[in-house]
């Protein structure tokens, strides 16, 4: 029997839906439009105000960091009976006198050498391009490269003429720099002297639960970041002094600004700062005196070991360590936001954030795969430490025979002494 196929019945088109018109109440619509316009206007005003005072906020941030850097010395004096105001005045005066004294002794020399250093930039770029063309068979035009880098002799000459006037000419021509320095110093001293009062004033606006968190965050940032800034400044100063003495002895041109550059880059630009800091003075001497460049590399290698194993453990023993990747990223972010000064303060800001996160962050247990990777890294570090211990033990073993000989002689003396004493007793 044949089965009947189901017939497809065509569906009739649905009737068109009627269009519904929505009517707004005029008063509510007017109120909504005015509210949106008011919010946009306030937002634009807030952006304008922030852009207008952004420079002042940046100076306030620098003042806060400087106040935290003075905090260890101020606390040391207050623990010995000094009033906080007098301790702050003494520490701030010593810092200002040190800066003024260094400026008076080396300021004119520094700016004159910096001017000659800037004037020699076109020659250095030309020498580097010529060496690259000879070594790698390139066809680079030194004139085009210097013009693209804005280091043509005319441009460099205008900058050098401004720098050659000395420190007094620079300060008198840049009155805004004086105003910025005064603003920075006044707020730094105020934040350092009235730090507890500022903290209690801010805490009074917070509920009790938030006040505990605020106090802990303030103490962490003050203890860790302040010590971090001080340690980096001390290490940068030591590095600049040693490099300046060495550059002067081997006859490096513009030895003072180059030494300061090496010290700052080595401490405030992690991972790559030391290498780039050494590369810059090498470029200024390698084409005229290659042996001087070799001596710079040798001295940098020796000083790096001394700084790593002698200076850094003693200066940074109470400060925190920042991951190299985080530190490098903070330098780039700070430079993008605030230029060269931002690159210097990027790491202290990252140190404060890392300290707070380490205190209030919650860490979870590692899964087996990650735990195995962590254990392998720990084993490698333990092997490196054991190798160092073995090398030190070997050095001690080499020095032991002399002592053993002297030790062998001591028992004989003791035995003879004992025999003499026995004879005396008999």
Describe the structure.
The chain starts with 25 loop residues before the first helix and ends with a helix. The protein contains 14 helices and no strands. 82% of the residues lie in helices and 0% in strands. It has 426 residues and is mainly α. α1 (26-78) crosses α2 (84-119), α1 crosses α7 (175-193) and α3 packs across α4 (142-148). The relative contact order is 0.06. The protein has a domain at 56-205.
Q: How are the secondary structure elements laid out?
A:
Blueprint: H1 26-78, H2 84-119, H3 121-136, H4 142-148, H5 153-163, H6 166-173, H7 175-193, H8 195-204, H9 208-250, H10 255-268, H11 273-285, H12 290-315, H13 324-360, H14 368-425
- Uncertain ranges: 399-426
Query: From the alpha-carbon coordinates, what is the Rg to the nearest angstrom?
Result: 34 Å
**Structural class by sheet pairing and helices:** mainly alpha
Major pleated sheet: none
Oligomer: single chain
Please write the string of helix (H) and strand (E) elements: HHHHHHHHHHHHHH
Number of strands: 0
Percent of residues in beta strands: under 5%
């Amino acid at each position: 029997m044949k089965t009947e196929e189901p017939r497809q019945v065509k569906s009739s088109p649905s009737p068109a839906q009627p269009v519904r018109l929505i009517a707004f109440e005029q008063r509510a619509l007017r109120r909504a439009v005015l509210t949106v316009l008011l919010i946009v206007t306030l937002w634009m005003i807030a952006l304008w105000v922030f852009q207008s005072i952004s420079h002042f906020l940046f100076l306030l941030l620098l003042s806060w960091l400087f106040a935290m850097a003075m905090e260890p010395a101020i606390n040391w004096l207050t623990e010995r009976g000094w009033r906080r105001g007098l301790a702050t005045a003494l520490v701030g005066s010593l810092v200002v006198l040190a800066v003024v004294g260094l400026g008076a002794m080396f300021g004119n020399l520094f700016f004159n050498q910096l001017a000659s250093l800037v004037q020699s930039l076109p020659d250095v770029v030309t020498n580097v391009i010529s060496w690259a063309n000879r070594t790698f068979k390139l066809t680079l035009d030194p004139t085009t490269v210097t013009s693209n880098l804005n280091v043509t002799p005319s441009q460099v000459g205008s900058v050098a003429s401004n720098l050659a006037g000395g420190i007094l000419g620079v300060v008198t021509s840049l009155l805004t720099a004086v105003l910025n320095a005064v603003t920075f110093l006044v707020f730094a001293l105020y934040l350092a002297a009235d730090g507890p009062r500022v903290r209690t004033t801010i805490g009074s606006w917070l509920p009790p639960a938030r006040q505990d968190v605020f106090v802990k965050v303030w103490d962490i940032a003050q203890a860790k970041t302040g010590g971090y800034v001080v340690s980096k400044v001390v290490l940068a100063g030591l590095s600049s002094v040693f490099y300046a003495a060495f550059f002067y002895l081997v006859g490096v041109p513009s030895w003072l600004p180059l030494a300061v550059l090496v010290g700052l880059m080595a401490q405030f630009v992690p991972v790559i700062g030391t290498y780039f800091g050494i590369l810059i003075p090498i470029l200024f001497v390698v084409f005229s005196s290659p042996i001087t460049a070799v001596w710079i590399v040798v001295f940098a290698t020796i000083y790096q070991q001394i700084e790593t194993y002698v200076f850094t453990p003693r200066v940074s023993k109470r400060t925190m360590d920042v991951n190299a990747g985080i530190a490098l990223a903070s330098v780039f972010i700070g430079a993008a936001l605030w230029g060269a000064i931002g690159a210097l303060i990027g790491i202290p800001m990252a140190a404060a954030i890392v300290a707070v996160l380490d205190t209030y962050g919650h860490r979870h247990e590692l899964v087996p795969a990650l735990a195995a990777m962590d254990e392998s890294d720990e084993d490698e570090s333990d092997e490196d430490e054991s190798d160092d211990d073995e090398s030190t033990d070997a050095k001690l073993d080499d020095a032991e025979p002399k002592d053993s000989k002297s030790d062998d002689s001591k028992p004989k003396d003791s035995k003879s002494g004992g025999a003499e004493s026995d004879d005396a007793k008999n």
